[in-house]
Amino acid sequence: MISKKINNQLFNIVFFLSFIGFYVVLLLVFNAGNADLSRQLTIPMRIIIGISSILIFVFNFRNRSPYLGWFYCFVLIYIVRIVIDYNAVRYFYISYSELIFFLFSFVIIPFVGMSKVNYKVINFTKLYNIFLVSALLFSILSIFMYGRYIGQVARVSSNTTGESAISPLTLSYCGSLIIGVIIFYLLYVKKINKPIRYLSLITIALAVIPFFLGASRGSIFAIFFPFFMMAISNLSFKNILKYIFLFVIILFLLVYLDGYLGSGLLDRFMGTSEAIESGGSSAIRLEMWNKSLSQFIDFPFFGDRLNTVGVDYYPHNIYIEVLQKTGIIGGIPFFVLVFKTIKASFNIFKNHIEYAWIPVIFIQSLMRHMFSGALYNASWFWISMAIVLSLNYYLKKNKK
Question: How far apart are the first and last CA of the chain?
């Protein structure tokens, strides 16, 4: 009994600190006027995630994880790339020691730990409540800190506010994750008590504010894509009509709220082609993608190097980044993992719909990392991938 409680609590800790809870802590630091201390907090939080993941692995060592071989294969190839670049004294924008720390704390340790979770002891109602509390806190803190900029700036950032501000990508993607997860929970979980239902609806309404304040183009894709996948997984005339109706409602709300709140989200989204032509951030990102793909074409088997040549940075698309850094040999295990997780998400949507809110995290991460983030710090992506894969394996074995 004690080990079950410990397993459950460890999973809750990792879940809270890996997703919205992590940014709740950062917002508290920013709100206290100590933005410079954020790094001193993020490292201890990563250490807590790492220790909790290791303990989960130790307690559940015998649990089978059939996809871990693909993960180990990819990680080994990626580490070989790091060793080659280090020995060649190639410049990387952060130190190699930091890169290794981030790789282990953001990717390797959490992924392996989350792959061994014993879902028989996980209380999913409590897990959702933990997510809901973190989502509510994040939304309230975001409004408290940046609500005065509604209608004043198109996008909250340090450049537009003239003061230290959390990344607009954080605001936007956390907002979209909160909205997506809660909607799926309300739609597909049958037994929800009234206080939690009302609190969930309030949280969705509040999360709209950081979503629009961050005004990220990618977050629009992140919101809609889980609904698209759900529609595909349950094809029927009735479901198609339902999701078309839901799509229209969400689209209408996006347009209305964008204008009402004075956000620049839809202007940025609709003006992507103009931004590319004028050499804006979209053009810079496309240039990075082109350069990274050129490196892959020149060195297709094992990839080229950690940096995007001429940019000295990562390409802001982890799928292109995998090909650039590890080539076909690293791309195969990576994309096998992605394919398996997408397939697992479809299976949960179709056969275990009460857990549908869990794959939403991975699907949104899948979209997010098409436009931002790097391989070594994509914690949402890797941790949600491990959770979806291990949850799907458990459901197939125990709930046929």
Answer: 26
Residue 389, both tokens: 């894969």
CA 259/CA 253 separation, integer angstroms: 10
The answer to whether the CB of 5 falls within 8 A of the CB of 118 is no
Torsion-angle region of 157 (φ positive above 0: left; ψ -120 to 50: alpha; else: beta): beta
CA distance 337 to 390: 12
Query: Among the listed ranges 138-147, 201-210, 259-268, 379-388, which one has the minimum average pLDDT value?
Result: 259-268
The span from the CA of 92 to the CA of 100, in Å, is 12
In the structure encoding, which two tokens stand for residue 275, read together?
């931004």
C-alpha to C-alpha distances, 290 to 5, 216, 284, 286, 320, nearest whole angstrom? 50, 21, 10, 6, 9
Residue among 237, 233, 239 nearest 359 (CA)? 233
pLDDT at position 187: 92
Mean pLDDT estimate for the chain: 86
270-304 tens-digit pLDDT: 544 444 444 455 667 788 888 889 989 999 999 88
User: Which two three-digit tokens encode residue 257?
Assistant: 């709220």
Q: Report the distance separating Cα 28 and Cα 34, nearest Å.
A: 9
DSSP 372: S
Q: Is the dihedral of CA 106, 111, 116, 119 positive or negative?
A: positive
Mean pLDDT across 19-25: 92
Cβ atoms of 158 and 226 closer than 8 Å: no
Tokens of 114: 């989350």
* CA pseudo-torsion sign 16, 20, 26, 29: negative
Distance CA 132, CA 179 (A): 10
14 pLDDT band, cuts 50/70/90, is very high
* DSSP run (H or E) holding 149: none
Q: How far is CA 349 from the centre of its chain?
A: 19
Alpha-carbon 359 to chain mean position: 11
Q: What is the share, in percent, of the chain residues with pLDDT greater than 90?
A: 54
